[in-house]
Amino acid sequence: MPIGPARMPLFEHLGELRMRLVRIVAVLFVAMCVFYLATPTIIQFMFEPIKDFMPQNPDGSVALNVLDVFGSFSIRFKVSIWVSIMACMPIIIWQVLAFFLPALKPSERKWFIPTFAVGVALFVLGTVFCYGFILNPAVEWLTDQAGGYASIFPDARSWVDVIINFEIAFGFAFELPLIVFYLVVFEVIPYAKLRESWRTVYITLMVIAAMVTLDASPVTMLLMFAALLVLYELSLLVARLVLGSRVKEQKEELAREAEEQRDWAEQWEIQKRKIRERLGDDED
């Protein structure tokens, strides 16, 4: 068989991988340089949802403090990296796809590209949801806890870490529909089984919401739980549309399994009864 893009020798694969990685690093480096210069504006944008709970400068911008000489650089560096990765995500994904796609079968490519696209979209949706609906009530609850005994000192590094951690946590949490969809489509967990176990699933979603909401606030936890619940139901709806008639087959299969379990339980009870009767006869 002739050697094509999917059947290159090992060293050519390594060379291809190195080229893709160099491109990704180069793009990220350029983006970091640009965003590093724009970090003050980016930070003010990051703090926009919570600036009402923080001291402000006369021009309305958030007044932050840096506690050590290296703090300002580390903050700008961290923010520029995070924003660069988000901004360059399409290029990063394209380079990853360009490396792996030639080795995939046409049937596999059909799922590969939509998976990456939906995964990125869900991650961005999670960060937007966090920015628009979570940060404000979360920080309000956190700052209220200091009422009556302390004042919160607006250290720039800790506040930036809180916002970034919240954004990343919600971004990954919003990948749940993709996971559920593939679990159902590839029949790792049947659709009917998830539908029957909705109580267990809902409790699991509530636990995930509690783990993701770093502030342990009941308000943010409920908002996160509501978002995960909607995404979960939407993922099941899409999976049902994709599966079509296979959903009915899964339900019938689960019904047969349940019937077999009942038959086995009945047979076991009969055997136990016979054993007890036999033991009783032996004692007599």
TrEMBL record:
Keyword Disulfide bond: no
Record-linked NCBIfam families: tatC
Family: Belongs to the TatC family.
Cell compartments where the protein resides: Cell membrane; Membrane
A Pfam family annotated for this UniProt entry: TatC
Transmembrane region(s): 21-47, 81-104, 111-134, 162-185, 197-214, 220-243
Gene Ontology MF: a single term: proton motive force dependent protein transmembrane transporter activity
Descriptive protein name: Sec-independent protein translocase protein TatC
Subunit structure: The Tat system comprises two distinct complexes: a TatABC complex, containing multiple copies of TatA, TatB and TatC subunits, and a separate TatA complex, containing only TatA subunits. Substrates initially bind to the TatABC complex, which probably triggers association of the separate TatA complex to form the active translocon.
Any single GO CC term annotated in Swiss-Prot or TrEMBL for this entry: TAT protein transport complex
